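Let's study a protein:

===
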Amino acid sequence: MEGNQAHVAVVGGGISGLAAAWHLKRSAGERVKVTVLEGSPRIGGKLYATEVAGVSLDAGAEAMLARRPEGKELARAVGLGDDLMDPGAASPAIYSRGALRPLPKGQVMGVPADLAELAKSGILSPAGLLRVPLDQILPATLVRTDVSVAAYIRARMGGEVLDRLIEPLLGGVYAGRSDLLSLEATMPRVAAAARAERSLLTAARDILRDTPKDAGPVFTTLRGGMGALPEAVAKASGADIRTGVTVRELHRTETGWRLVTGPVPRPETVEADAVIVAVPAPAASRLLKTEVPGAAAELARIEYASMAVVALAYPADAFPAPPGHSGYLVPPVEKRAVKAVTFSSVKWPHLSRDLVLLRCSIGRVGEEHLLQREDAELVSMAMAEMSEVMGVRGLPADTRVTRWGGALPQYHVGHLDRVARVHAAVSGQPALAVCGAAYDGLGIPACLATARTAASRILDHLSRLGESEA
């Protein structure tokens, strides 16, 4: 410490690291100096907006859950409360069996609770629809340990519900595969029901019954896109933000930590009393390998998926009719290159112009070959999707391709136990904490919750340290 001021280094300038810095300064004020070290040329990580046809449009995450408090609370705290925007009334669809079909009402992450609504949607074939109610008479599927989403859903409701409802919804979040993804980590309410209820259909109905009916919109965004949040948080944190600084090594010292940065021939060091590691799991694993090998080994096992977001801006008259949905998801069984489409100017009315703004997501686990194509080819794929599904004619007024290599952590079976082991190993190291999307949820509020927990751990340590030196 310098005088009574502690120095905390935050490795990673994504929203988790920036939020951790903000929590540190808000709670400790001038008693702590915070330095954020970000390896890339900009802060914000997966929150990033650029202009498309003169409109600021997110290239990464374009919304956050409104029914968790962390995101909206932080936006208000950093001066963006008036910029919070609700979605429009349009609902999403699923491209299934050759047509866009409305996502049925009465479902929990794709698990149907209302058979009439499911039948009306037309997403499943008649045979697939008849299989669903057998869930109510089949023997219980005992779930005593974590299992894959596919194993449980297929056993209860059959393959079509899994392939045409669960897969596209999970794919939209994780870009992963249901036969690998953890039921406990990705669908916790369904997992809890699996331990208590024999029927998944009954469990889904119970979950919906217990969900508040007046909870408001599920999602929210910011007027300038979610990409506006990082800069606001960074400014409000008062932290020293350094971009283009990659931390290559992390070593414990007698008084805290030494971070090694800079090129190998000319290394530089940063001394800190405490460190928060807020980078993706592979980078965190490399940093912790020497001092916390147990955590490093577990983090190294977390795999990541890559994807690309292709934004298109079309004249409104390019569409034979205005899009009737906020967007649509595409099941892998449809074997289409585009896995999801968001009609941004429909979903978010504040973006509405004379143009139709949309985003196409390309790439899931196992589809890396698609992302090896040139930007122009990805744009062509997105345009072909619009032509075939929406009847769009003509060329877009503007396009943008953003690639997210290794962007989405995969919560495979056993993920929660793996994360618990990481936290246990890190907790044995004073003045060290971790946070980010690799741990307790990919959404922005979940990342912010891990940032707050990490900051609290460091503040507790510094408080005890101060008391011992007094």
Remarks:
- The radius of gyration is 23 Å.
- The chain has a mean pLDDT of 95.
- The longest strand covers residues 304-315.
